[in-house]
Amino acid sequence: MDKIAIGIDLGGTTIKFAFVNEKGEIVVDWSTRTPTHEGGQHVLPKICSSIKMKMREHGLSTSDFVGVGMGSPGAVNREKGTVTGAYNLNWSETVRVREQIESSLGIPLFFDNDANVAALGEQWMGAAKDEPNVVFLTLGTGVGGGVIVDGQLVHGSKDTAGEIGHIKVEEDGFACTCGRMGCLETVASATGIVNVARQEAKDYIEISPLAQGIMHGQTITAKFVFDNIKLKDPLAEAVLTRVGKYLGTACANIANILNPSTIVIGGGVSKAGDELLRFIVPFFEQTAFPTIAADTAIRIASLENTAGVLGAASLVFKETPLSK
Ligand SMILES: [Zn+2]
User: Fold this and answer.
1) pTM (2 decimals)?
2) What is the distance in A from the centroid of ligand 1 to the CA of 184?
3) Domain range holding 105?
4) In angstroms, rounded to a whole number, what is the distance separating the alpha carbons of residues 196 and 238?
5) pLDDT tens profile 232-281
6) 313 with 267, same domain?
7) Cβ distance 311 to 304 under 8 Å?
8) What band does 136 get if pLDDT is binned at 50, 70 and 90?
9) Ligand 1 center to residue 245 CA distance, Å?
10) Are residues 183 and 162 part of one domain?
11) What separation in Å is there between the alpha carbon of 71 and the centre of ligand 1?
12) How many domains are there within the chain?
């Protein structure tokens, strides 16, 4: 029988699971709602009971699995096996994740932050398959990042490397969740694009459905901005030109340091596909060191919902266990 790992993608709304073999094939997958009530205390027990139930359903036991991999929100301390600041799980304090999962399942846990894990997924089976040098950006509610150099995730001295969302791109910008101002996340996440749209709409005088929508108090989303691009809305064009400049310049600065072969853009905003790349690539090419501009591919992520579980499973297959 193939070696099988359990991949878990722990999110604030949904927990996704998969049994994955060494070839990166998903044998079984399922998901469940994240029980964030009562301080998120039921999240880890739910993960364990859901896995045990699925193992029973398929006639599998602990010895059939080589490990559990998981991508988690918040700050992951791999050495201590803890997660701090996972506010979307309602975890207000540091949670001893590894201890709880390993004692309940009896299978070793390998885990990392969710953006790092999604980066690994795309590098294993997705848009950067088999590329050893990859930078991954996820444009969702926030902006996350994962950096892979010579096939290994870069963690830095305190597991905090790859905070691409907090690269400063504006002198005086919008306030960021991190406490700073003008971070990439404030202008290039789904909420950041809306920030830019609202700012650009002020005193806008040309004919624009986007400007009209904002003026009339309509709920504005990043998708709405992209929908208006298709209608040749000049304000949407101006908004995304500005967002593309921030992203293209940030990608160029990162690429100048790391020289990745591929920069992968994932997350909800990346569903815009080529309509998003069209705004990023010109600024990347204008800003990056010329040989880097010529040799770096910028691609949309290809795995969508499975990047997290596949990346989590790949942690099991590739990461060296750390001392506990
Ligand atoms: Zn920030």
Assistant:
1) 0.93
2) 7
3) 4-120+306-318
4) 10
5) 999 999 999 999 999 999 999 999 999 999 999 999 999 999 999 999 99
6) no
7) no
8) very high
9) 18
10) yes
11) 21
12) 2
Residue 1: predicted pLDDT: 60
141 shares a domain with 92:
no
The edge-to-edge listing of strands for the beta sheet with 109-113 is 26-33, 14-21, 4-10, 65-72, 109-113
Domain identity same for 294 and 311: no
Mean pLDDT of the chain: 95
pLDDT digits (tens, 9 = 90+) for 300-317: 999 989 999 999 999 999
Q: Is residue 323 included in any domain, yes or no?
A: no
Give me the amino acid identity at 150.
D
CA of 185 to the centre of ligand 1 (A): 6
C-alpha angle 124-130-134 in degrees, rounded to nearest 5: 85
For the CA atoms of 265, 283, 211, 218, the dihedral, rounded to the nearest 10 degrees, stands at 10
Distance from the CA of 192 to the center of ligand 1, in angstroms? 11
CA of 60 to the centre of ligand 1 (A): 44
CATH classification of the domain holding 263? 3.30.420.40
2 confidence band (pLDDT: 50, 70, 90): confident
pLDDT of residue 180: 95
